[in-house]
Amino acid sequence: MPKILIVDDSNMLRDMVKYALNEGGYPDIVEGVDGVDGLAKAKATQFDLIVSDINMPNMNGFELISELRKIPAYAKTPILTLTTEKTDDMKAKGKEVGATGWIVKPFVPEQLLKAVGIVLSR
Fold first, then answer.
1. pLDDT value at 122 more than 90
2. Are the beta carbons of 62 and 35 closer than 8 angstroms?
3. Strand pairing partners for 30?
4. What is the extent of the structural domain holding 59?
């Protein structure tokens, strides 16, 4: 079973993502409250997928993705962004730092599960 890290400063959103993933058959989930916490957890345990917000305190999602991509174990790990940002400039910046996919909030659980299924099957 894939191990998934959810990084978002909103407890409610982490709960919603966790619920959707659990319902979709992904029970092995760890939560990070911001980029700093998420990076520490990623360094302590190997994850198969990371789902991260962009706008967070202490370390934003772009910084988190950039730092993760510097770690050899995370060079090819799928990282999905789940954010309110939807401009082409923001998406381009996400791709530039190494994001695998971009999902705009509010998300549809089926859309999230479809994206998770696609990136984990690669």
1. no
2. no
3. 5
4. 4-120
What is the signed CA dihedral for 72, 57, 111, 68, rounded to 10 degrees? 0
pTM of the model: 0.96
Token pair in block for residue 56? 């967070």
Which CATH number goes with the domain that contains 95?
A: 3.40.50.2300
- Count how many domains the chain has: 1
- For 51-93, how does the pLDDT look when each residue is reduced to its tens digit (9 = 90+)? 999 999 999 999 999 999 999 999 999 999 999 999 999 999 9
- Write out the DSSP string of 92-118: HHHHHHT-SEEEESSPPHHHHHHHHHH
Q: Residue 104: its pLDDT value, please? A: 94
Alpha-carbon separation of residue 20 from 7, 14, 95 (angstroms): 15, 10, 25
CA distance 83 to 80: 10
Question: Which helix (H) or strand (E) element contains residue 54?
Answer: none
